[in-house]
Amino acid sequence: MSCLNCANNTNGLPKGCKSNGNCAIGGCGQRTTYDWLSNLDQHKSSNEVSEVSFKNGRKAFYYNERQLPVHVGDAVVVEAAIGKDVGMVSLTGELVRHQMMRKKVKVASRDLKKILSKAQEADLQKWKKARARENKTMNRSRELIIQLDLKMKLSDVEFQGDGTKAVFYYTAESRVDFRELIKLMADEFKVRIEMKQIGSRQEASRIGGIGSCGRELCCSSWMSDFRSVTTGAARYQQLSLNPQKLAGQCGKLKCCLNFELDQYVEQVQKFPSSKKVLEFKSAKGKHFKTDVFKNKMFYFIENSSGTSSIAEFSITQVHEIIELNKKGNKPESFSTFVEEKTFQKEPDFDNVVGQDDLTRFDAVFKKKKNNRNKNKKVRNKKKAFKNKKQ
């Protein structure tokens, strides 16, 4: 699906988004919602509320008071706190009510702002002019922040559709007094200024980027809620606590650490406690590592003779040893529980010494040499025969 700004190229061919052209709404496919109720017959009341998306995935619900025939991808003019704004319809029908319940928005549609009309050509042109000012405004605002020596970072600027208001998104570690900054920006840009502080995760979701997995950031493509991530999630998954590998572009722990956490927690419950020491008659084993996928546990074995080694046990074997220790019995040796594995090492090269002789090409050269001599003799005979005739 593409919006009206990038649907067709100048020659009539489809342009699309990505690197083919500039998108006025900051990405058509950002946080898209699949309407799994689209095949059902919709009640008339289900079209009263529509979901409208704005720049960088910002969405809001609007009341369609006039019952306009809006569809997904249509540009509409909506009511704003002051003035008007332009956005793209991202969801219609019965699924809007489910989205409102999920996001804990009151279903009383009369309290929502309204969809005024479908966007006309004049509205779209004014919208594009406002969006074209954003980069220059952001760069100039950053210069003003440096001049005033404010401890804040300006992340993004979003102009309202009618160009009368601009929202400045920033991050800061502490409270910032930007009253002087607002005066300077209002005098220079001639618009209403709104400063909005966001967190580091929200900043990464608005700016976007590519993660270490090679795909687009989850927070900027499909995630809408940010759950807390702790180091316990990394410990359950047997990951090394390396902040450089566990942190995302926002500087916080990666959200994907929570994706498979429930499966790991469920699987780890089958394993015995790693704090228990395995006791043998001549050695003791302390937990070293757990392989959740193979259901294996590795123990560091300390022999009474002073030697040490690492042994691999299955879950059933560890449970069996622990039960014997509880009864006061100690196995003779850990080697009785360890399966000996024999590996047949295959050479990764071929021994070609002696297979070929150094004189293997001599016969070919001799044959070629003989052929050349024969050809010379034949040519000489022909010449002699011609001379005799003459």
Please write the string of helix (H) and strand (E) elements: EEEEHEHHEEHEHHHHHEEEEHH
- Strand tally: 12
Gross morphology? extended
Number of domains: 4
Main sheet strand line-up: 2-1-4-3-5
Helical content (DSSP H or I, runs of 4+): 25-40%
Task: Report the major sheet.
Answer: 5 strands, antiparallel
- CA radius of gyration is 37 Å
Low-confidence stretches: 1-5, 17-26
Class derived from helix and strand content: alpha+beta
Helix segment tally = 11
Condensed summary:
The chain is α+β, with helices and mostly antiparallel strands and about 400 residues long. It is built from 11 helices and 12 strands. α4 links the parallel β7 and β8.
List the helices and strands and how they pair.
Layout: E1 49-53, E2 59-63, E3 75-79, E4 84-91, H1 95-102, E5 115-118, H2 121-132, H3 134-148, E6 153-159, E7 165-171, H4 179-189, E8 192-197, H5 200-207, H6 218-221, H7 231-236, H8 243-246, H9 261-268, E9 278-279, E10 283-291, E11 296-303, E12 308-314, H10 315-326, H11 362-389
Helix pairs in contact: 3-4
